[in-house]
Specification:
The complex is a heterodimer of chains A (about 650) and B (about 375).
Chain A lengths: L1 H41 L1 H12 E6 L6 E2 L5 E13 L7 H15 L3 H10 L7 E7 L1 H10 L6 E10 L5 H11 L2 E3 L17 E3 L2 H5 L1 H5 L3 E7 L5 E8 L7 E2 L4 H13 L4 E7 L4 E8 L12 H10 L8 H4 L9 H10 L14 E4 L2 E4 L11 H7 L2 H11 L1 H10 L21 H7 L6 H8 L9 H13 L26 H16 L22 E7 L21 E8 L6 E7 L5 H21 L29
Parallel strand pairs in A: 2-10
Antiparallel strand pairs in A: 1-8, 2-3, 3-4, 3-5, 6-7, 8-9, 11-12, 11-17, 13-14, 15-16, 16-17
Chain B lengths: L13 H6 L3 H21 L8 H18 L4 H25 L1 E3 L2 E7 L2 E3 L1 H24 L3 H19 L4 H18 L3 H21 L2 H11 L9 H12 L12 H4 L11 H34 L3 H25 L17 H18 L6
Antiparallel strand pairs in B: 1-2, 2-3
Helix pairs in contact in B: 2-3, 2-12, 3-14, 4-5, 4-14, 5-6, 5-7, 5-13, 5-14, 6-7, 7-13, 10-12, 12-13, 13-14
The chains are: A alpha+beta (about 650), B mainly alpha (about 375).
């Protein structure tokens, strides 16, 4: 019996161990199944994509970049075909391989020893393609293909070079901010075209090059090859031709543009000027000072020049016309007035007293005229830029309505104008303030906003848009690009303001420039000679930079950086507007006195042009100053 | 109840003996081989040449061989255990002395016109020898120190020689099978614990003895992406190809990675990648299922056998199959460092198939000899 029992026990133990072992094996196989599931089902798509990358090689064929032209057909930026040699290191590529290839090709590619070393250093164990040379001519390519034995690894690809034809220095300086430049793509997001990830891809960085990048770039073509594990081309999978970028014609009027820059330079001021055609929103001039000669950045000393410009404390690289943000000051009263009228908070005939200062919520707010304007209606208050009137108007209307109206007139937002960089300015609201600080909106902030100070910020471009919208009553949208032929211009929507309200404000704006007591009389274009008199309507602004005490005289005794900015927005001719203009002179002082003459000069040039018959395309635009055959009567723009 | 049970004599009919063979297990193994044939057909781009046809023919020979071997009486197998092991060991020793060198390794012997790999013979005879050893001393004796030492020696001597060929995969297989048989034989678990401790201590030392390429394989296994163009290449490619199979694969003959040669050893060690890429998870899981079934059926074969020798032979054979599968597919999916181990009955290459079928033949011979319980 014992033997039998022992047998049974042994059997049982064996069975147990056998089952344990079997279970262990099954578990191991099960784990494999799980791993398989993970790899294939959960991550299958990712692996498949890697597989695609593995077995295909994509060669991008860049599209020829569109040119940038002026209205007269002058070429500001051009594209030229070239070829480049790209090294596609295959698996297992070593530094020796790289050195061998570079040594063989260096004379053909005209590589300097430094460049050769750099290439060899980069090629170590990498799979990313390396550009050997980007400026090959057709002859270079022919020579390469005959002599190169490394045909598998070095591929010749089409490329383009951006060429900026030399301009007259005046034009080169005037257009520097506008044309901009192209440069390497420095950050690629996953949404970007895969073409941008290719080495040497270039993209517009500033100016129109960046703003109209989508139109200029075109669509890259590509050839996709299937390759095997030894990087041999097995077959061609796809062959898509590139679509060339569109040429872009700017709306800039060169005469006006150079006049604008001259005016800024002559005033020895930093600042920006924007002139718009109110009918179609075309940007006729967009100048920023100080500017620079774009040619310097393309010459042999480009790097040094760039460094110099960046270090310059005057910040010449900043495009003040689109990116400079300043308090609009009294020019903002246009918005406040319209907001108050639309909200029914003021009547045009209503008189509000201006004793020189008012007190709200325990704070004193002064008028620029310490003596006060006395009781004033809207017309007088606008004409003489009475602060107290607008404090009251703002208080009654409330910040939300004012902000909404400002938006309608183009303040506080980006415009699709076609160049960068662009700032959006700032139209503050209680929501905005809540998001940034713990305190709530204060009444005093509404009051300050009413006269365009406080948090309110605007760029010269936005101010010009505001002027254009007041002039036409429509939502004029600025653009620097001429529509391609055949495309119909969009109609601008009417603004949600009553015609009567606009009418009152417009008449007041005419008064600013043309009536006694108006702050903008320096902008009046006088009758003289055989020139028609052009009625200018506008608004001055003196943008406070430093808080001044009651007794301090806000003039030249202040350090320059603390002086007020001079602002002026205007449009002309008042009865049938064609041009809108905004002039902003940093730290120049009084708006009317300093910016007014610039406005006058610009409008003279602008309307003088309009009187001339249109130039035929193809004629050179280099007429230098003014562009008129009849010389000007008054040498405007010289002040200080 | 040995006195009641009827002892079947060797004179019983062959047919009766055949009837007792584990036909389900044989069918399963045949299905696996068929799967392998299909995979090789697919890898060659939809053709029976040059691999699929040869593979099928080999199995068509190996299967009857296994069945014939299954008719051998247990006593004969048991008697042959020691001589067979001695022969195998002699051949393994001979390899570094007179062996043929190929691909940087010495694994083959040329005898007359035949070339054979002694390690394959060793795999089978080791199982026999260990089974003989433990069945001789009984379960109580299994935990005796001298017995355990003898078992370790039986495993270690050939294992070390094999690893130095170098053939790490086969060496690991020998060790794995040896441990499995020792476990089944009833060796006290404390020995295993002590063994693991000893391994933990010896591992760093062993690591220095590894060949460079073997060490790199382990490093690369731990972090394949660190060297995507070098040693990690195979792993990365295998993973990509396998993963891209998705749920149902890219289709027969259409696996881009394998067809374009991105996966090396695609007909041998990495065949599972082709299966995964072209038949997807469904295909791979089916094959895994077949292997799992085979392992389970082998375990049942072992449990039902009465004779201790038979149980250990069958158990050892099942362990061999399982270890092959786990190491190979583990390697291909990146869970295990790359060691050259074929996928049994699927990888192209005759010796592994032959060895396994011979082992199964002997397992069946012993396990079905005295009748099942």
């Amino acid at each position: 019996m014992r033997i039998v029992d022992r047998d049974r026990e042994q059997d049982a133990r064996f069975t147990r161990r056998a089952l344990i072992l079997a279970a262990g094996q099954a578990a191991a196989i099960g784990a494999l199944g799980v791993r398989l599931y993970d790899l294939q089902v959960l991550n299958g798509a990712a692996q498949a994509a890697l597989g695609e990358d593995n077995r295909t090689r994509t060669i991008w064929i860049p599209a020829m970049r569109g040119r940038i032209l002026t209205t007269t057909g002058e070429v500001l930026a051009d594209s030229r075909e070239s070829f480049r040699a790209v090294l596609y290191p295959r698996r297992g590529f070593t530094a020796t391989d790289a050195a061998r290839i570079v040594a063989e090709l260096a004379p053909l590619l005209r590589l300097s020893p430094a460049a050769s070393d750099a290439i060899v250093a980069r090629a170590r164990g990498q799979r990313t393609p390396i550009i050997l040379s980007e400026t090959l001519t057709f002859d270079d390519v022919a020579a390469l293909q005959v002599t190169s034995s490394e045909a598998l690894d070095v591929v010749i690809e089409p490329a383009w070079q951006r060429i900026y034809p030399p301009l007259a220095p005046a034009h080169s300086v005037a257009m520097a901010h506008i044309v901009g430049h192209v440069g390497a793509v420095d950050r690629v997001s996953v949404d970007d075209e895969p073409y941008l990830r290719r080495p040497g891809a270039r993209i517009g960085k500033t100016g129109v090059e960046a703003g109209l990048e989508a139109d200029l770039r075109g669509v890259a073509g590509r050839r996709v090859y299937e390759i095997d594990a030894r990087s041999r081309h097995v077959r061609r999978l796809e062959d898509r031709a590139p679509i060339a970028g569109q040429d872009v014609t700017l709306t800039i009027d060169m005469a006006l543009q150079t006049a604008a820059l001259e005016a800024l330079v002559a005033a020895d001021d930093r600042g920006g000027i924007v002139v718009l055609d109110v009918a179609n929103g075309h940007v006729l001039a967009l100048a920023s000072s100080p500017s620079f000669d774009a040619a310097d950045l393309r010459g042999p000393d480009a790097a040094a020049a760039w460094k110099r410009l960046k270090a310059n404390s005057e910040r010449p690289l900043l495009n003040r016309a689109t990116a400079g943000q300043y308090p609009p000051a009294s020019t903002f009263k246009i918005v406040t007035a319209l907001a108050a009228l639309e909200a029914g908070q003021i009547a045009p005939a209503e008189r509000i007293d201006c004793p020189g200062s008012v007190t709200y919520a325990g704070h004193t707010f002064r008028c620029w005229n310490r003596a006060g304007h006395g009781p004033s209606d809207l017309h007088k208050a606008m004409r003489e830029s009475c602060d107290c009137y607008f404090y009251e108007a703002a208080r009654r209307t409330g910040i939300e309505r004012i902000a909404a109206m400002a938006r309608e007139f183009g303040l506080g937002e980006h415009h699709d104008v076609g160049l960068t960089p662009q700032s959006a300015g700032l139209m503050p609201t209680p929501a905005w303030k809540r998001a940034r600080s713990r305190t709530g909106w204060l009444l005093g902030e509404t009051i300050l906003a009413g006269i365009g100070q406080g948090y309110v910020l605007a760029t010269p471009l936005q101010l010009a848009v505001m002027a254009a919208r007041v002039a036409t009553g429509r939502k004029v949208a600025p653009t620097i690009r001429q529509l391609p032929p055949g495309e119909r211009p969009a109609q601008f929507e009417p603004l949600p303001v009553s015609e009567s309200g606009l009418d009152v404000v417009r008449r007041a704006l005419v008064a600013v420039v043309n009536e006694d007591g108006g702050t903008g009389s320096a902008a009046a274009v006088e009758a003289g000679g055989d020139r028609r008199r052009v009625v200018v309507a506008g608004k001055t602004g003196t943008s406070q930079v430093a808080r001044a005490s009651a007794d301090r005289d806000r003039t030249a005794t202040l350090k320059r950086g603390l002086r007020d900015h001079a602002v002026f927005v205007a449009y002309a001719p008042a009865e049938a507007p064609r041009f809108a203009i905004a002039v902003l002179l940093e730290n120049a002082g009084n708006g009317g006195a300093e910016a007014g003459p610039v406005v006058k000069r610009m409008l003279e040039v602008a309307t003088g042009l309009a009187a001339k018959p249109t130039r035929a395309a193809g004629q050179s635009g280099r007429d230098g100053d003014g562009g008129d055959d009849d010389s000007d009567d008054a040498p405007a723009g010289r002040r200080r | 109840m040995t006195d009641i049970r009827q002892t079947r004599t060797e004179a019983e009919g062959i047919l009766a003996r055949l009837a007792r063979l584990p036909w389900l297990l044989l069918t399963t193994l045949t299905l696996v081989a068929a799967f392998g044939t299909a995979a090789l057909y697919s890898v060659s781009g939809g053709s029976f040449e040059p691999w699929a046809q040869r593979h099928a023919s080999r199995f068509a020979v190996a299967l009857p061989v296994a069945i014939i071997l299954a008719l051998v009486p247990l006593r004969m197998v048991s008697a042959l255990a020691w001589p067979a092991y001695a022969l195998a060991l002699g051949l393994v020793v001979a390899v570094p002395l007179v062996g043929v060198e190929a691909l940087g390794a010495r694994r083959w012997l040329q005898i007359g016109g035949l070339s054979l790999q002694p390690v394959e013979i060793m795999k089978v005879t080791l199982v026999l020898a260990l089974a003989r050893l433990f069945s001789g001393v009984g379960e109580r004796g299994a935990s005796r120190p001298d017995v355990v030492l003898a078992a370790v020696a039986l495993v270690a001597v050939p294992a070390v020689l094999v690893i130095r060929q170098p053939d790490l995969g086969s060496g690991l297989l020998l060790v794995g099978v040896g441990l499995a048989v020792m476990f089944l034989a009833g060796v006290s678990l404390w020995y295993f614990v002590a063994g693991m401790a000893a391994v933990a201590v010896a591992l760093p030392i062993a690591a220095t003895m590894l060949h460079d390429y073997q060490r790199r394989r382990i490093e690369v296994f731990l972090d394949p992406d660190r060297d995507p163009l070098g040693a990690g290449y195979h792993i990365a490619q295998a993973r990509i190809a396998l993963g891209s199979g998705g749920w149902s694969g890219q289709g027969f003959g259409q696996g881009a990675q394998t067809q374009l040669d991105f996966v090396p050893e695609k007909t041998t060690d990495f065949i599972f990648v082709a299966i995964g890429e072209e038949m997807g998870f469904l295909g791979g899981a089916t094959l895994l299922g077949l292997y799992a079934l085979a392992v389970a059926l082998t375990a049942m074969l072992a449990i039902r056998a009465r004779d201790p020798f038979a149980r250990l032979v069958a158990g050892g054979t099942g362990a061999m199959l399982a270890i092959y599968v786990v190491i190979n597919i583990g390697m291909v999916t990146g869970l295990v460092p790359v060691v050259g181990v074929p996928l049994p009955l699927v990888s192209y290459g005759g010796t592994a198939m032959t060895t396994l079928m011979v082992a199964y033949g002997l397992a069946m011979a012993t396990a079905t000899d005295r009748g099942r319980r």
